[in-house]
Amino acid sequence: MEPGAAELYDQALLGILQHVGNVQDFLRVLFGFLYRKTDFYRLLRHPSDRMGFPPGAAQALVLQVFKTFDHMARQDDEKRRKELEEKFGRKEEEEAVAAAVVAAEQEPAPAPAQEVEIDSAVDSAGPQGPPGLRSVVQEVAQGSREAEPPGADAGAAQVPREPTALP
């Protein structure tokens, strides 16, 4: 039978399969048809018999057809497995390349020029900060004390002063 010719019967066979509901019952319908309407199960006992098969021939025929399609199914499975391996292999490779591109595009974070410890405690000299910043804060604090009227210093001693906010 030609490969394309089998597809002519697909609709009829699908209809039977859907009607009976499972493969086992479908095979019963198929072999029942062969039993009732053909000489598939008839044995040739005498050379003069005109219908039937020699003993074991029908079974060998079924087994041969089964093995043919079983072999095709194993080849299909192997082909699908290889395609999936290639697909996932390519996908993993593409992901690795994409990750490398992203990593290359990202600039590394610059190293700090100088580490500075910040202490929030205020001592008698004023707020603490980096050496260059400390002198600026002290100048601002001294300038504000000079601008205060005499005697304002006494009130300032009672109310704790908050450090000047830096930009």
TrEMBL record:
This chain's source organism reads Diceros bicornis minor (South-central black rhinoceros)
Compositionally biased residues, Low complexity = 98-115
Q: Where does the UniProt annotation place the signal sequence?
A: none
What residue stretches are annotated with the NudC N-terminal domain? Answer: 9-67
Domain of life of the source: Eukaryota
What's the protein here called?
NudC N-terminal domain-containing protein
Sequence segments annotated as region (Disordered): 98-167
Q: Which residue windows are transmembrane per the record?
A: none
